[in-house]
Amino acid sequence: MLNTLLPILLFAALGLAVLGAGKRFLMWRRGRPAKVDWLGGLLAMPRRYLVDLHHVVERDKYMSRTHVATAGGFVLAALLAIVVHGFGLHNRILGFALLGACVLMFVGALFVAKRRRNPPARLSKGPWNRLPKSLLMFSVSFFIATLPVAGVLPADFGGWMLAAVLAVGVAWGVSELFFGMTWGGPMKHAFAGALHLAWHRRSERFGGGRSTGLKALDLDDRQAPLGVEKPTDFTWNQLLGFDACVQCGKCEAACPAFAAGQPLNPKKLIQDMVVGLAGGSDAKFAGSPYPGKAIGEHSGGPHLPIVNLGGKALVDAETLWSCTTCRACVEECPMMIEHVDAIVDMRRHLTLEKGATPNKGAEVLDNLIATDNPGGFAPGGRLNWAADLDLPLMSEKKSVDVLFWVGDGAFDMRNQRTLRAFVKVLKAANVDFAVLGLEERDSGDVARRLGDEATFQALAKRNIASMSQYRFNKIVSCDPHSFHVLKNEYGELGGHYQVLHHSTYMDELIGAEKLNLGQHKGGSVTYHDPCYLGRYNGEYEAPRAVLKAIGIEVKEMERSGFRSRCCGGGGGAPITDIPGKQRIPDMRMVDIQQTGAELVAVGCPQCTAMLEGVVEPRPQIKDIAELVADVLLEAPAPAKKPVPAKPEALEVH
Amino acid sequence: MTDLNIITLVSVGAHPTSGRARRAEQDARAVELGLRLAGERLQLLHAGDPREETLRAYLGMGLGEMAVLEQPPGADALPVLADYLRHAGAQLVLTGSQAETGEGSGMLPFLLAEQLGWPLVVGLAEVEKIEKGQAQVLQALPRGQRRRLKVRLPFIASVDNAAPAARQSAFGPARRGQLQASEVAIVDDSLLAEAQLQAARPRPKRLKVIKAKTGAERMKAATAKASGGGGQVLKDVSAQAGAEAIFKLLVEEGVLR
Amino acid sequence: MSDIIRRDPRAEWIARNRLHPLHAAMQKAETSWMGPNGIVRKNPHAVGFIGPNGIKRIDRSGAQQGGSGKRTTASAVVQLPLHVIEQPAFYIAVVPDMIGGRLSAHDKDLLGLANKLAGSDGAVVAVVFGEYKENAFDTAGVDRLLHLDGELFDGYAPEQRILALGAVESQLAPRHWLLPDSRTGGGELGRRLAAKLGERPATRVWQVAEGQCIGRAGAGREDLVRRAPRLILAAVECAEPVSDSRHEVRPLELQGKIARNLPRIEDLGAVAVDPALIPMAEAEFILSGGNGVKDWTLFHRAAVALGATEGASRVAVDDGFMPRNRQVGATGTWVTARVYMAVGISGAIQHLQGIGACDKVVAVNMDPGCDMIKRADLSVIGDSAAILAALIERVAAYRQAGERDAA
């Protein structure tokens, strides 16, 4: 009897799965078009899954092994089951193989079940707690059903009683694992995840690449929506990406805004997008809510606005404005979902269409438009900090080795100390450098993160035009935000440069023995990785190497390197200023204090400002440039005669 | 919100530190006030160049179009505006207090009121209610004070920095909005023929001139400690003595009332 | 002048000598007076006199004799020369703001400018509406005073006032009209007058010399230089106030009745505004609290007692003691208060930037080395709670005394 029942069950489930897949696919395709490599992506998918994704999952060894066993066992078991039970190919060897796969899957499922006994807060409950049972049911049912095939048991063992029980078990298993996969069950992550990897919006990320720059809006296209108002305004592969979420909550655990009690939870945000994609309310969400916001009060649909400024829709605006764009969620996501892109897309709509940038946002954007700096300072004062330094100007030198990108810190009295320190270093190393002076404008970073793509592009285009008049080999900046934007986001607008963070450049100078350095005196030091230097651009080593060169052994924080926690200063978060239970810089200062360090080295004006905003007593905050300038020795570098780097006849623009 | 027919007059402003063209601060506040009263039915009116992109910043506050009476720079806006308003059937005309470019005498609302024969409210902060052809409004006085006035419709009101801050101008609606130009007769402004604009000279801080009438006074003035240069620090004094010193300063500055 | 008390033995002797013809003149009368709390105070030492043998004598008969009062130098009030214009060749009309019934500093500057324009032939007419308390019109430079009183001009009645000024125009035909370009009334009245008279005024004028006047134009980035028109709206410090002459303040009457207009704008009176709600950028006096404030109820009480607008440092806002719109500094609001009182604020750079435009800064802090104290004009080192409490008390006493004075 099982021999007739099992194929029916299997093929019914498979048929329903294919139907669901088609339906789901059409759902994603409601989104706006996106250019993808259809076939190439599919072909690259196994490698992306087995290598790139595995690297992320591997950070949690327990889960990685569990997943290999469960998923590997399941895929094998499912394929064999279709052959053996579906097509009735009762081969003993195949039977034993199927038994083995079932055992493997069973063992994996046991570990899944164990994790679910006392799950950490970041994990979603609800249907996700059902999943290990379904996995166990599937593996056990198929194991028993296959025993006769393998010849371990007689063919008619157990009679119709056992057959009925097994049929129920198999039915449960295949409905969860086959058609549940495409009808919105927990197993959806496998189906959508695989396709998401194939048609990912940043395929450069695979194979060890890095892609962190935001994608430009085409402002010349009057038909294109300015940002995302409703779920269908996302590109279709973004929608697909949201569906890939496994609700593991790694993002939630890494999110600084969530930890500070601001109303943002990246996992919930992605799940809300899934709700929007299919239509409905968030009442079924079984994870942590946005801090301070009850579950079940928000709902939406694919063609309904995501944010309703006057009331409630799918997501509240303050949720979107809580994000510091630190990319900790993206870094942690085992499904490689792009949370920050989605948030900025939705912010773009709020700023460009609704004019609803909260708090000081509107003022900052107005200032950027009218004065090219967020503070509204007279543009003519951009070089006042260096009035006595006699800085070479690009307009006079025309051609140099290094263009020193000063950034808006030029207007901030604290950051001016860092800038002066770095100039001291540059001069000590006899670097052939110049600044743009009054021709420099805000890089557009803040405007872009606040969703004002129009102002970003206006600033960027003017900066690119200024720089195209001159020749230089590389740009060096003390500001990781300018650094990132110049390096990764100007390209789309026609500005391609070699850009270095000042820590990287100082590392090069030290390596070339162009600096005569003493040793750092004073207490212990820890180092805070700026998000836009570390996670955005993968530079973790150079700052540490510089610190090491001046005799500092960094007392690492628990959250450092790619797991560094944001200072709270990115993405315009200090401007939009969404209240939480505590402040992000205060939390970061606790991290710093736990190392017992007396000084924290930073490499970003935002981090400096945010951390120095923490009430004393607290460790001192100093930029790497300041630390290096402090130990500069007067005498010129002994060994090599400093050769002013020849500007090569290379036009960079 | 009322079903009033409201027109806000707008101009091209200049940013105070960079001098770059922008929406004028007070005019934008006047638009904000108009939007709160009339919503999207608010009409905008400008006399000048319809190709001026800065005007779109007002449309970006959520309005579909703006009427522009086309004029070359240096033309007198008053007659054309008065002409337009006479036939526009507005019950309330809102303006800023003074322009950010050109003369900026702040005379426009006064002259319009005189020409149209309408009452004028200066420093409108809030319209509380409108009934039976009369509006009850709050007028802003210095230092955040308010005065309640009742005024007959139609009237002109100028808005200063005490009015509600203007909402953000959004790029999308600004780009979509229409500037409806119309041709008008051009009247030259006679002032610019005889007066000239020059970069503002910083005004010197007034010196304390001591007019000594006796030798002793002159001596005292000459030897007195120059004011400024480090403040007075009271250390190790009782709270009462400290409070007394603060109190004296407050009275001297005239902020206690 | 020196305050050193010099004894005059002869005067003392005369004061003791009842038979001396100058005896009465040398008596010091102050033996009892009304104290600040309304109680009659007596000076027992002032009662009586020192007798010829050096023994104090008290005469209970009522005829007080002898004086122990110390002699102080009589401060010589210098009489300024009187400036008389008998037959003015022309008039310069000034309409001062008269805030609180007194000439403001702005008004005095304006009168100074008027005197400059009047020279030695013209007369300065001050047109004053409603009741006034000013008693120094003479030294401020008013040759003629045209006082327009009556309920017509009470409250906010700009249209009625313009009618009156129109009558002045037709009677005196002043060569110049000068009004303060202020937000306290002058700016509005001047522009209304300009519209009425059909004169194009020069506004925000800060210098008038040789028939040319310079005024700020546009958003203040430019100056407009032009021939001085008849109607000038002048800014603060447009000229030095009159300081070395006295003027007649001869009253002037308006001939004929002023027409009464039907008020189109009705004044319903002032609206009480909570100082706490005044936008900080506008506030004149800000009491700002920071991390060092422990007792926030006391802080709020102090703000009410002082009539100050409340501000806060970033930390106080972050900690939730004050709302975000009260944050002062580069990242909050840039304030322009005349007096900024920082309690328990150590003075981060951003904060000091935000108060750069403040005139006087008062700091109350425990730490004498903090940056705020370096910026402050007056700093008191000590416990902020005790100082605030003492200040509340002191101000309360002052207010009480003020009320009695007014009564």
| Total beta strand runs of chain B | 14
When the domains of chain B are counted, the total is 2
CATH C-level class of the largest domain in chain B is Alpha Beta
Q: Tell me about the biggest sheet of chain B? A: 7 strands, parallel
Amino-to-carboxy terminus distance of chain B: 38 Å
Oligomer: heterotrimer
Radius of gyration of chain B: 24 Å
The secondary structure category of chain A is mainly alpha
Average pLDDT across residues of chain A? Answer: 92
Order of strands across the main sheet of chain B: 7-11-6-1-4-5-12
**Assigned CATH superfamily of the largest domain in chain B:** HUPs
Number of helices of chain B: 8
- Beta-strand percentage range of chain A: 5-15%
Rg from Cα of chain A = 28 Å
Global shape of chain B = globular
Descriptive overview:
- Chain B: InterPro entries: ETF_a/b_N (IPR014730), ETF_b (IPR012255), Rossmann-like_a/b/a_fold (IPR014729).
- Chain B: It holds the Pfam family ETF.
- Chain B: GO terms for molecular function: electron transfer activity.
- Chain A is 49% helix and 5% strand.
- With 653 residues, chain A is mainly alpha-helical.
- The longest helix of chain A has 27 residues, at 2-28.
- In chain A, helix 3 packs antiparallel against helix 4, helix 17 packs across helix 26 and helix 21 crosses helix 22.
- In chain A, strand 3, helix 17 (413-428) and strand 4 (433-435) form a beta-alpha-beta unit.
- Chain A folds into four domains: 2-190; 230-352, Fumarate Reductase Iron-sulfur Protein, Chain B, domain 2; 379-511, Rossmann fold (3-Layer(aba) Sandwich), CATH 3.40.50; 525-630.
- In chain A, the strands form three sheets. Chain A has a four-stranded parallel beta sheet.
- Chain A contains 26 helices and nine strands.
- With 257 residues, chain B is of the alpha/beta class.
- Chain B folds into two domains: 6-194, Rossmann fold (3-Layer(aba) Sandwich); 215-253, no CATH class.
- Chain B contains eight helices and 14 strands.
- Chain B has helices at 25-38, 56-59, 77-88, 108-116, 171-176, 191-194, 215-223, 239-253, and strands at 6-9, 12-14, 21-23, 43-48, 65-70, 92-96, 120-121, 124-131, 134-140, 146-152, 155-159, 178-183, 196-199, 232-234.
- In chain B, strand 9 and strand 10 form a beta hairpin.
- In chain B, helix 3 crosses helix 4 (108-116).
- The radius of gyration of chain B is 24 Å and the shape is globular.
- Chain C is of the alpha/beta class.
- Residues 65-73 of chain C have low confidence and may be disordered.
- Chain C has three domains: 1-76, no CATH class; 82-252, HUPs (Rossmann fold, 3-Layer(aba) Sandwich), CATH 3.40.50; 275-406, 3-Layer(aba) Sandwich (Rossmann fold), CATH 3.40.50.
- Chain C has ten helices and 21 strands.
- Chain C is flat.
- Chains B and C meet through helix 4, strand 7, strand 9, strand 10 and strand 13 of B and helix 5, strand 10, strand 11, strand 12 and strand 16 of C.
